[in-house]
Amino acid sequence: xxxxxxxxxxxxxxxxxxxxxxxxxxxxxxxxxxxxxxxxxxxxxxxxxxxxxxxxxxxxxxxxxxxxxxxxxxxxxxxxxxxxxxxxxxxxxxxxxxxxxxxxxxxxxxxxxxxxxxxxxxxxxxxxxxxxxxxxxxxxxxxxxxxxxxxxxxxxxxxxxxxxxxxxxxxxxxxxxxxxxxxxxxxxxxxxxxxxxxxxxxxxxxxxxxxxxxxxxxxxxxxxxxxxxxxxxxxxxxxxxxxxxxxxxxxxxxxxxxxxxxxxxxxxxxxxxxxxxxxxxxxxxxxxxxxxxxxxxxxxxxxxxxxxxxxxxxxxxxxxxxxxxxxxxxxxxxxxxxxxxxxxxxxxxxx
Length: 351
Prior knowledge:
By secondary structure, this protein is an alpha/beta fold. The chain contains 13 helices and 17 strands.
């Protein structure tokens, strides 16, 4: 998870620094220039409104140490919809309350709120109806398992049914890769699902949840869909197709994907004639996109990616696989740069 912490008061800055030390993930702290000790590794700002466009689009979660009203005014122009907006969390500058404000389920704000409250010894404030009733919402489960949901409006249908006391059954498409793995994951969450052919859905009581590889447009059916997977690849010149294929398969296995679920292979334009990449893409009928240095550098700056001085000297940019995976759309890095022999792979979900 890539997160930002924003503090506008002196005490808020101290708490922000403490939280940054305690919280897992790739975090960046922004501090109001006149309000924090300059020995702290913060990014300074004068007006929060000036950094908000970049921060809102760059991070998976944004944690504010300030008043809720300020946050509402700051983020309002940038809110799109619940399946793409970042998790927004607000903490008072004394660290008494941690408030889940936006994207509680799909963005993970509720879960992150509980984690932060535990780390700071604060009180979590969560107001979503399913959570306060102790009901596990399907969109929360989808996020935990690494799925998107479709159609989005059916989330409300399912949650309304659950809140009214109605049972909602879960089913898994037998053609979904790793179907038995997801059966086990649901069972760990005390959900007993059944594996079936999708042509059997007509006989199943609605509403229901279906884990599947392809969306099904049926009234009362909420689909959990695998995220579109983008692979960024870097390699030494002349690396064989077999080696690149083996490394990409291994990388996909780390996040319970198969290589044939990759929808796009990306790399630097320097590798546009790299036979190993081209042959791997051709074997699995995966489109390939090679990005020029300008596009890659924009992603390096936007996502604050680490650069290798050696790689930058060789090709002009210091990050290939992560930058390539993140370039060209709204994406979330799900597997950071992973080194294999002669090959590096990064994987991103398309939002």
